[in-house]
Fold:
Amino acid sequence: MPRGLFITLEGLDGSGKTTQIKRLAAWMQKRGLDPVIIRQPGGTATGDRIRALLLDSGATPLTPMTEMALMFADRAQAIAEVIEPALASGRVVVCDRFTDSTEAYQGGGRQLGSERVLQWHRLVCGDLQPDLTLLLLPSLESSLARARNRNERTTAQTGQDENRFEREQGEFFRRVWEKYHEIARRDANRVVLIEGNLTIDEVHEQIADAVSERLLAIR
Ligand code: TYD
Structure:
């Protein structure tokens, strides 16, 4: 059985990833593909508990190293339970965030540096790399504005506050943004950078083109 295709979506909070993943899943289903969709942190029972720990803004602040270790603990579980079995059975896996997020947020944003993140990646993920990464980077200003609106809406609707990350402002997000650009330059074969303030349809078209190309390459 040929191995499946591993696709990741990356971007700043508020970059429209969630909408695009839904569109991409529908696009795939129309073409007879039945993708496995998973998000990080989360996506397994253990991962959801780790996610709650990570995103709870009322909790004692985590050190950057603790945060990174929890991200990789979540990832180890997701790889074993969901990602590897799906790829081994030939399925397409679409993952909302993967190691690039850890490199951008903990490596860049929290200033742990890329090398430490990549060492953990080798330890936990071995050779597993996405076949294709779609990196959504609308302008920094519009991403921040969208993330802020979304937080206010969610908090008003649910009374729950998952906003610890999104409270970090300006400089933190600028470092995340720059690290993402660095990753895109370094791994240009894997990463398709979708930048600028495009409409939802325009972003979807670029994603569909990139995915079609990879699907053709493996058929
Ligand atoms: P989430 O609500 O899933 O945000 P989004 O919908 O924007 O993906 O929250 C995930 C948060 O966790 C997001 O702020 C990015 C952060 N994160 C890291 O800092 N490191 C990581 O390795 C991952 C996977 C996520």
